[in-house]
Amino acid sequence: MKCPKCGRMMKEGKLYCEHCGEEIKIVPDFEPEIENSIHINLSHIATEITSPFEEKEAVENEDGKEKSADRKMKRRLSTKKKLFASVAVLLAGLVSVFLVLQLFFWFHPGVQYDRAQKAMERLQYEKAAAYFERALELSPADISCLAGLSRCYLELGKEEEAEALCLEILSMDPSNAEAYGRLIALYGQREQYESIHRLLLDCPDNDIKNQYSDYLAEKPEAEAKGGTYQKVMNIRLIANSTGVIYYTLDGSDPDENSDIYTNPIPLEAGPYILKAFFVNQYGVKSDMTVEEYYIDVVLPKAPDVQPKSGVYARPHLLEMEIPEDYSVYYTLDGSDPDSNSTLYDGELWMPVGHTLLRFVTVSPSGVCSEVCERQYTLDLHPLLSMEAASNQLMLTLKNAGVISDLQGGVTSKEGRNIYTYKHTMTINGHNYYFYREYYEESAGTSNATGRDYVVNYMSGECYEAVQQEDHTFRLLRIEAQEAETGENGEES
Fold it and tell me: Buried-most residue among 59, 110, 249, 433 (CB within 10 A)?
């Protein structure tokens, strides 16, 4: 059959043109008004047929009528008999046409489909379902009828029947977007997210997968595939949607207690077996990704930090030798250091109290050495606490006119100075708390001013500490904005 609109050939039994979408009207819609009209016309004809018999009775009952009237009546009856025969034939023909039309309507799927569509427009879903069911009896593989009936079943609360019809549609048309949408909505209402995941995994249409990607849990993809590399690697894992990636590097199977992927995974030297899986926001788990790597690089030597671990009564500067172009990073919380940790800049004083420090050397190519660990206990026995020393410094700076009040206010400026404790240190054999000065603006931002101060935690004396080119400090007394040579008048 050809489409009446675009002229292209259509498949047998199709109700809509696949090329232009034109609806194919195989027969005109049968309306109840036509049936009523037929019944009315037939009633009128029957009335006309019976009237001659009534007239005949009237003539026969009249006594004394003339014979001529009898002859006329006979002629009239003969004529009307002929008319009756003609009407009877016409009536039989009309009845036959009516029955043929009824049979045609009953046995044509297109008519049943149109009736179902009109019933759905009037929200008469039970009636529409009956028409769709009849259409499917006549044309079981009609996807349009299957889709319409699945919608009716959903509206009528027949979820299992609707689900079965949608799955039947997908068995015939694996890329049917309407069936996917209906099934995903149904499974979503039931919170059957695993069913949605499995449904989408089998979907051959990437556009449909992308549309519902939040429900899909595909296994994470490693940006760099497994293999041997002569450089340090940072492995980036990619998931298809929002969720969490769990991984291991030792070849063991990860679970939800394993490391969570938040940043690229550093691979420094030696063999690694990366295993990872993804859990989406609906709790659906993906299959596992497995990649094997071998990083063929030479590890740098771990730093030799001095002094060694132990208990100390006064602060010491921590020192080590660092090869040219290499760097040392450290942590104070016991975690493993790497190139994202604190950079050792050549000046690190032993912290007060008990501290675990961990150091690592990093080569120019990013390879980390083994970790060097130091544990120190620095017991100062100071006469001034840090808080008392901070108050003494603020009072000294106020008396010298550096600040206008004990809150750090600065004359002619809206902000204030803040003095932050950094560490303890030894200068010329005396022990000090070291403070760095910051200027805090009224908006809350702060920046270092470049001035540092120290407070002798035994005597309470305060000095400005000026660092020299050789990294030693010269101490200047704080006296009314005038700088003088510091304690003992010597450089450290």
Answer: 433
